[in-house]
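call fold(seq) -> tokens
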Amino acid sequence: MFEANIAILLIVCLIALVAIGVHIAIALGMTSALGIFLVTGADVYAFGTVQRMLAATAYEAIREFVFAVIPLFLLMGEFISKSGTVTDVYRGINRMLRRLPGRLGIATVIGNALFSFVTGVSIASAATFSRIAYPEMKRFGYHPGFALGTVAGSSCLGMLIPPSVLMIVWGILTEQSIGQLFAGGVLPGLLLMSLFIMYVFGMSLLKPSVVGGGVVHNPDAKAVGADVTGGTAGDTEEVSTAQFIVSLLGIIAVVVAVLGGIWFGIFSPTEGAGAGAFIGLVLAIIKGLRFKDFIDAVLSVGKTSAPILLLLVAASLYSRTLAMTGMANAIEGLFIGSGMEPWMIIGVMVLIWFALGMIIDSISIMLLTAAIFSPIAVKLGFDPIAFAIIAIIAIEAGLLTPPFGLLVYTVKSAIQDIDPEINVMTIFKSSVPYWIIMLVAMVLIVRFPGIATFLPNALFPS
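ret:
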């Protein structure tokens, strides 16, 4: 009973610290230290125990070779982003879909999907396409809310389509194969992309005004990529066929080399990430990468990956502390002994992920819940790969949920100088259809887990 009270105290303390604005890593560390201190007797010797556990956890949590996969995949994405290939491909897709209603919205969804194959971070996708796609959609009379909702919603593909940072973290936390998780995300990612495209196309037919139907576009406005390349509308609207082909083939080469190498056993995930970073650098050099951009890319990856690794250490310490109190077993017993149907229990987990998505980032949510929820799902009879994909979609959907949906704030920040009149609630409201579509995708995977398990079973036969 004493340990149960300590576990409840730790959870309350963690929630309170996060609510008042303490960084999640610091909050995890503080509550873990408190828990160890209380569990080991709250005497003078407990301070030494806290120090030893912290030192051991910090060493064991990130010493594995597999952790290098995070900065290496981030570096690959930075190099490809700096190369300008994303802008070229977006323009080329835009031109190919010229006769299709809602072509700019559809091009944004497809472009985000392709960008997801080389970056694995939805926040990066949201920031990039806010600057690339929104000016073009605005120029052609798209409703601002619809345009920004499309950017924010389709950015969620960044964490589902491999190589995804969330998949890497999930694999590490639950000791699942990262290669299998990458394979499991492909078909659900394509399914979600298809549903997004169907929504954009349907809206363009049912309500043409949201995609500029009947609106005279502004020829003097900035065209796609103008803010990135420094050009004007006249010299940035089009991309040559040669540029488009080189950029598209470059992205395809990265995807085939890295993911294909991992799936067919040529690379380990870490080696594949290293190969991807090298190919990304070569592609960026071919496209004119400057030394300053190279340094900026490396520094950006350091700034992004260091907090992630710190979070992993803090979350590992917190998990150990909860294990000492028996909280993980208590939560498992509560769910399994509740008498609810398995799909109801999954529904409760999804609601928890939605709620957490309102206040903290996706990696922090995963660090807090993956090690507890995944064993429960397996005991309920769910395939671990299918459950991982459901979890990732739910966590990403939480980033579109008010009042603190991080993807929405990322989009707002990225377009502040382009359209400062747009408020956050406009983007939240326009993201709701994509949130609903993601919920539909989760239901489909719960009902038909083969959507997520077909490729892993085909590529990694037991």
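The mean pLDDT is 79.
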